[in-house]
Design a protein that fits this description.
5-stranded antiparallel β-sheet; 334 residues; mainly beta
Length: 334
């Protein structure tokens, strides 16, 4: 698939009492390569339980034709071995081998290919492996393969998304997690697989509870960007800007995975549209030559229900409703 696998919903939660979300990323590009073990750590806040977690690795292959294997462990527990890549040929045989998952789901490990040798690996079922006492979680992985495949093997970065619960967290959480490989190109390529121009990516967010919202945050993850080149992400048509003064240059980290979080409470509608653009005619200046917007998380928080509210609805709610109906009928019969 030459233009990637567009961002799409993989997991969501609604009305999670005493819950919060954590998103962490570690840049790794200069420290990793084919056959080199890489170790990095993540720490989530002390909590009672981790309700859901997903671990992302952004890996550079070099071309869509090369292949490799990923072995990994989290806190000493082995994760399934994965095959990454295309045909394994050392030269383009015609059709690139970058593939994409046939099924995208919260409990499915997915390997997304851009069609240009850029990979996002989304590792499932890691929540039970994480420590909840505030100590470091250690990830160790190796990208390996025969030396003649040419697979580069460097990792742009590792990202951990976790949803956790603790009685001390005084809020109710809704969240929606999206992933894929929204590969955007500034110009038409002159090399195989000859992609068409692709200057933007859009996707919809639906079913958001907009009642009594205390915060709404959109976190955008990019596999890479280029400093000084223009790109922009919009939420319901509203430009989400990075640090003041940088203008239309959201993804600027170069060969690293980077995260940017934005307050979208003023723009939240319930049915929302997110759009990424590198169109220079729209943004002005030199547009990004390539851009990977490959993971996104929307979190919306509400106040925690008062303890008495739930009791009223369960124990006394029916009696109160019956009394009000009796009074209404009496009033109508006068």
């Amino acid at each position: 698939m030459t233009n990637g696998y567009n961002l799409g919903l993989v997991q969501s939660g609604t009305g999670l009492v005493n819950s919060a979300a954590s998103v962490q990323t570690n840049p790794l590009f200069t420290t990793s390569g084919l056959g080199t073990p890489v170790t990095t750590t993540f720490t989530i806040p002390s909590c009672q339980t981790v309700d859901y977690a997903r671990l992302y690795l952004d890996i550079y292959g070099g071309t869509p034709y090369y292949s490799a294997q990923l072995t990994a462990s989290l806190n000493g527990l082995a994760l399934p071995t994965l095959n990454i890549g295309g045909t394994g040929a050392s030269s383009p045989p015609g059709t690139p081998g970058d593939g994409n998952p046939s099924t995208r789901g919260p409990n499915t490990t997915c390997v997304y290919g851009s069609g240009f040798g850029y990979w996002e690996v989304a590792l499932a079922n890691v929540g039970s492996m994480l420590k909840t006492n505030g100590s470091a979680n250690t990830l160790t992985f190796t990208v390996s393969g025969p030396s003649n495949t040419g697979f580069d093997g460097r990792t742009y970065g590792a990202t951990l998304v976790s949803i956790y619960t603790d009685p001390s967290i005084q809020q109710t959480l809704d969240y929606q997690l999206f992933e894929g490989d929204g590969y955007m190109r500034q110009t038409t390529s002159t090399t195989a697989p000859y992609p068409q121009q692709n200057l933007g990516r859009s996707f919809a967010i639906t079913g958001v509870n907009t009642s009594n919202v205390t915060s709404a945050t959109y976190t955008a993850a990019y596999e890479g960007g280029h400093a000084g080149q223009t790109d922009q992400v919009y939420f319901n048509g509203n430009a989400l800007g990075p640090t003041a003064g940088l203008g239309n240059d959201v993804a600027r980290g170069g060969t690293i995975t980077e995260l940017h979080s934005f307050n979208v409470l003023p723009f939240l509608q319930g049915s929302d549209t997110v759009n990424y653009s590198i169109d220079p005619s729209l943004l002005g200046g030199t547009g990004e030559s390539t851009l990977h917007a490959d993971m996104a998380l929307l979190t919306v928080t509400h106040p925690t229900p008062e303890p008495g509210t739930l009791a009223l609805l369960t124990a006394g709610g029916l009696a109160l409703l019956t009394m009000r109906r009796w009074r209404n009928r009496r009033h109508m019969n006068r």
